[in-house]
Amino acid sequence: MPAGGFATATAGGVKFEAKITPIVILSCIMAATGGLMFGYDVGVSGGVTSMPDFLEKFFPEVYGKTQDPNLNSNYCKYDNQNLQLFTSSLYLAGLIATFFASWTTRRLGRKPTMLIAGFFFILGVVLNAAAQDLAMLIIGRIFLGCGVGFANQAVPLFLSEIAPTRIRGGLNILFQLNVTVGILFANLVNYGTAKIKGGWGWRLSLGLAGIPAVLLTGGALLVLETPNSLIERGRLDEGKSVLRKIRGTDNIEPEFLELVEASRMAKEVKHPFRNLLRRRNWPQLSITIALQIFQQFTGINAIMFYAPVLFDTVGFGSDAALYSAVIIGAVNVLSTCVSIYSVDKVGRRMLLLEAGVQMFFSQVVIAIILGVKVTDDSNDLHRGYGILVVVMVCTFVSAFAWSWGPLGWLIPSETFPLETRSAGQSVTVCVNLIFTFVMAQAFLSMLCTLKFGIFLFFSSWVLIMSIFVVFLLPETKNIPIEEMTDTVWKKHWFWKRFMDDKEEVPATGTKGDPLTDKWAC
After folding, report:
1. Which of 87, 110, 163, 421 is most buried, judged by most C-beta within 10 A?
2. Distance between CA atoms of 251 and 244, rounded to whole angstroms?
3. In this protein, which residues make up the domain named Major facilitator superfamily (MFS) profile (predicted)?
4. Is the model more confident about 425 or about 295?
5. pLDDT tens, position by position, 264-302
6. Is the alpha carbon torsion for 7, 8, 13, 17 positive or negative?
7. Taking the CA atoms of the chain, what radius of gyration do you get in angstroms?
């Protein structure tokens, strides 16, 4: 694999020489398999819950509804709290695990944290594949959730820190690309295992999650630790050696010195989570929280869930759920590739704004068609309208896949300074999992209540988040992470008012710091 060379410039005009080396590409691919595991977990749950044998064993009440010819409801037949708990328990466990993952990421490094995630994934896979009752199934999902918490904490940081500035966005989105590949892989597996006679196909679906779990664990053993993490933990010579390897040049002194200085400043901060609450960190914190909430309120879950009924209407027959999942999964993967190619060329804001228009339009069209043509107990949709709805579904999924899907993770990982980066990533994962849990636990009930109106609900959120991007989200394309404060935040029309240099001294958490004293144990 040839290495391509380029030089990146900081805000101060200092050029960091860097090549796109094979070791960087391979390390990022190996690390991004954490996304493959996450995506498989997300995709496989939707498939197995549509398998009659799985429902009959673990959710007999739902199974009874799906087999009852007198219960005619497109919107309410899967409305069951235990079924929702099967999905949402993963995110709740991930939420709790991310607090521990923040500590391991900071004290042990990015690489050991990814290794811990791999072990949790393997344990969860074993329990799920061998599940005999609902309790064992949920415990397995909890272990998988712990793996998600650790992987989502470490992998985006790893990718942001090991990649050269110019291609940081594209390499970071490898994580999201692997999420979409994992979902597609799970959908294909579900399509095959659903045809297995004897009622054990769902075990194979859950057990094959062991493939990405082993890949992540093996990858974590093989990759290099990031120079940022090594320097942060005082291993300067090792950090310099790794930086030389990943940049493919001996001229790494300017970047090394900047990393050392950033690490020195980070060590002065005794309480990174408390420091996040300081005024000068409000811009990064506010944007991080907003992006995670908005990502969940795009309505991607609504589209993904309702797609089987829509595709069935068009004429895919009894395998509609699995056919539609595979088609949408393929669109998801291809569109994420668009993001990898364009994110470091057209920028983050442009992708988000274009996708906002595309998602808003597609959801409004779907809501209108379903509201006019489909009732709660009928899916009698004219074939022409059905094809239009299917096109709108793919339009929405493609827009999400090249915007809010990957960028919801990329932007937070590249905006926090080193002294609060690990804590900031914890907040990113935490908020994302909180609202993913809320949506997973409440969505089927919302669908039963709002019916087609759920698409109007989410489209209004798409409008709100697009306005947020226009006025409050700065562009971070091709800007070195350590230069974000001077280049981005101090020059933004709104956020610059929070960049008071006079807060530098008390932010270290030393004696006399009013914030530290207030929160001291």
Report:
1. 110
2. 8
3. 27-477
4. 295
5. 877 777 777 888 888 888 999 999 999 999 999 998 876
6. negative
7. 23
Could you tell me the pLDDT band of residue 401, with boundaries at 50, 70 and 90?
A: very high
- DSSP label at residue 3: P
Q: What is the dihedral of CA 30, 35, 40, 43, to 10 degrees?
A: -150
Contact 496, 490 (CB under 8 A): yes
Q: Find where tokens 């692997």 sit.
A: 178
Contacts of 243 (CB under 8 A, 6+ apart): 227, 252, 255, 256, 259
146's CB contacts (< 8 A; 6+ apart) are 93, 94, 96, 97, 117, 120, 124
**CA pseudo-torsion sign 487, 491, 494, 497:** positive
Other C-beta atoms closer than 10 Å to the C-beta of 315 total 10
CA 57 to chain centre: 31
Tokens of 128: 């799920």
Which tokens is 38 given?
A: 């996450």
Beta bridge partners of 7: 17
CB-hemisphere CA count at 13 Å for 290?
Answer: 17
Q: DSSP letter string over 157-220?
A: HHHHHHS-GGGHHHHHHHHHHHHHHHHHHHHHHHHHHTT-TTS-HHHHHHHTTHHHHHHHHHHH
Rounded mean pLDDT of 118-145? 95
Q: What are the structure tokens assigned to 76, written together?
A: 């309410």
State how far the Cα of 272 lies from the Cα of 232, in Å rounded to an integer: 13
In 3-state terms, what secondary structure has residue 499?
coil
| Nearest CA among 125, 454, 194 for reference residue 305 | 454
Task: State which H helix or E strand residue 18 sits in.
Answer: strand 15-20
Q: How far apart are CA 245 and CA 224, in angstroms?
A: 10
- Residue type present at position 295: Q
| pLDDT exceeds cutoff 60 at 15 | no
Find where tokens 């942001």 sit.
Answer: 160
Over the range 299-311, which residues count as b (16 or more CB within 10 Å of their CB) and which as e?
bbbbbbebbbbbb
Summarize pLDDT for 221-241 with one digit per residue, the tens: 888 899 999 998 889 999 999
* Residue 474 and residue 284 in contact, taking contact as beta carbons nearer than 8 Å: no
Alpha helix (H) residue ranges in 19-133? 22-31, 33-48, 52-58, 60-67, 81-107, 110-129
